[in-house]
């Protein structure tokens, strides 16, 4: 029987799994894998400029294509630089397979150069992690890794590859099937539970659908929209669930939670049945637990058994894939009498509509609404902070538009590399990243990646000169003590407080240009449209548009941490 090295088998396995793109950064323990990748033309290798950016790029590639994202990094610091990205993917159920180099087996545990126990370090933030200690196990382990990553609740898997094991000769065979004892993810729907839930839905006077990120992950949007149309039941979403139905749908109320709209939060408080699909009920959407949906019976459909009744006790639990469940619902649902209930929700929306104060200066809403007008077929990638909440509030999501972000972990620095991964996976789509001036600087080195890959990204930087979300909390709850949030406050200013602050650094326009990208700066609302038009003309390199935002802008509504959803700060 023909024998090949582990390095050759790995490349063959990637091809067998249909992998067309690997996001990799080389090192001593993976140089032989890099050499094997060099010898073939079927798999494209993307070379980012930092491993954290690398894993975010693979993450966004996976989110937007439905494929498994693949990472390759070396041992030690190369592996540890994946940690934040693995946690990001784990929270948001993103299928990744990450290969890390490792020192030779006889050196493991001896504090060798660039040796870390990366499997141990990441055990709590990966779906599965393993060090390959036997060459003959390599094919089976890779096959299982891809299966585990993409099935059940998707998530990241880490495979640690000792250099000597990968150099050994072994079987060239790659398994065609997987059989993992103890891992049999359930996707089928318990019809008895589902029919019981649908009876409750039919009887409810004030029913409400709550759609989480699971609806988008399962690609259940179209069939869920059919269910909503048939039942005439209104919908609220988490920010990760935004787009479960088009945001212009007449039955879509808005996002709920800490920065949810008034009508959505009030509807949760008043509904008598909350029919939730694909959400963990985390603290950012529930507020004070004992006051969440106090009048409602709760149905919870989720693929992850551990997510059901973990935070909120539910009346009817249904463990199932969101798409499978919603397809079955679509077969059995009936129209519900919701006219009075919808009238009440419309009244709440009229009392406190979701909009920013009108002012002569440019606002985040002005920018996002112009983006909505100019781009009807796009992927919007948000970083984390105030701008993320504005994007989740005002961005229109339709059948042709998607929005991705780090929702569960809230990872600053995700936006720019996320846009790169999305664009590589969707070369025919327009990809727009929205970042704050703080988050943009966390992975700004990826300009090199984007320029060399000729990616026509549009990078919107909302520059308010502060770490805006923390500043907002300091303004509302900490007596305007803006500690550690002013990005212009250097050492000189701190020593001579009261003197004029230094100029803002960096100059984003010049920085973009230094990498070979295009840079624009906008300070007036009258110039927003022209900036986007100019960016659309640039089809070979990224265009950064720096929007100068008033530092005093606040994301409203806001539920005070630990408060109830009906205790919203609407303005101040």
Key features?
single chain, 572 residues, alpha/beta, 24 helices
Task: Give an overview of the whole structure.
- There is one protein chain.
- With 572 residues, this protein is an alpha/beta fold.
- 36% of the residues lie in helices and 18% in strands.
- It contains 24 helices and 22 strands.
- The strands form five sheets. Strands 3-2-4-5-7-6 form a six-stranded parallel beta sheet, with helices on both faces. A six-stranded parallel beta sheet has the order 11-10-9-12-13-14, sandwiched between helices. A six-stranded parallel beta sheet has the order 16-15-17-18-20-19, with helices on both faces.
- Helix 3 (51-65) packs parallel to helix 5 (83-91).
- The longest helix is centred in the N-terminal third of the chain and has 15 residues, at 51-65.
- The chain is globular, with a radius of gyration of 25 Å.
- The N and C termini lie far apart (75 Å).
- The relative contact order is 0.11.
- The model has no long low-confidence stretch (mean pLDDT 95).
